[in-house]
Amino acid sequence: MAQRYSGKFSPNAASTADKQHDGFKSAKRSRAGGRVNLLFLAPLPLIWKAFTSPPLEMMQFLIALGALILAAWMTREGLIAQEAFEARKVARRPALPRKILGSALTATGLAIAGIAGHGPLEALVFAVLGGALHSFAFGLDPLKNKGVEGHDQYQSDRVARAVEDAESHLQAMNRAIERAGDRALERRVSSFQATARELFRTVEEDPRDLSAARRYLGVYLLGAKDATVKFADLYSRTDDAQARADYEALLDDLEQNFAARTQKLMLDDRGDLTIEIDVLRERLAQEGLRSNV
């Protein structure tokens, strides 16, 4: 489907020019590309080997091909999971160590290909070298939870689960708005998501804020996702200008409210710190360890 671009002299310029937001100001290049894409291409010569070999070797080459393609997919998913882990201040380690499984599948695929084309000794060498080089190139999965030190484990787990659910709503918004085929709207949604993630980070820094932000991480984001899905389905068919204006107004309201909630939580945290400092100073003064001036 053709993409619609919006500029100064484009249709809808009046409704979009004043609402241009830099949704990519904190964007980083994903590591789930480049070298990972080569992993999908590298085993393809095994197709030729398979269909120019006797039946038994053909089956072995095809199994090796499947294992190596699955290894590439697991590696890419592992890198995506690691990026999400690193972006958060409080996060649980991935339940499935995808990059480690990618290394194991790479070793398995190369071993099967080695047996089919050479022999057991060569297969062992291929497996050891392939698994080791894969681990060296892409690293291991995060094996420990992050950011739980100094916080109640139960509260930290609740925050991690709430943020994971909230991120799933944001990802669903991305998938939906892409169907609308409008780059300006994609940037607008990205801007709102950046504001929402600032709230996520604030809650992660102090899990006690979860109660005050739960509606934003749950009900409001779920509503935003549902509205985005319905809007994208309608706009991709009709290009309804009024629907677009209503949707942009919704995003404006959501972004303002999320930013206000983040600011309020930060002010509350600063107020709590001020109280703690005042109490500590008073105790020091009572113990004669600090002069009252």
UniProtKB/TrEMBL annotation:
<feature type="transmembrane region" description="Helical">
    <location>
        <begin position="34"/>
        <end position="52"/>
    </location>
</feature>
<dbReference type="InterPro" id="IPR018770">
    <property type="entry name" value="ChloroindolylP_hydrolase"/>
</dbReference>
<keyword id="KW-0812">Transmembrane</keyword>
<protein>
    <submittedName>
        <fullName>5-bromo-4-chloroindolyl phosphate hydrolysis protein</fullName>
    </submittedName>
</protein>
<keyword id="KW-1133">Transmembrane helix</keyword>
<dbReference type="Pfam" id="PF10112">
    <property type="entry name" value="Halogen_Hydrol"/>
</dbReference>
<feature type="transmembrane region" description="Helical">
    <location>
        <begin position="58"/>
        <end position="79"/>
    </location>
</feature>
<keyword id="KW-0472">Membrane</keyword>
<feature type="transmembrane region" description="Helical">
    <location>
        <begin position="100"/>
        <end position="117"/>
    </location>
</feature>
<feature type="region of interest" description="Disordered">
    <location>
        <begin position="1"/>
        <end position="28"/>
    </location>
</feature>
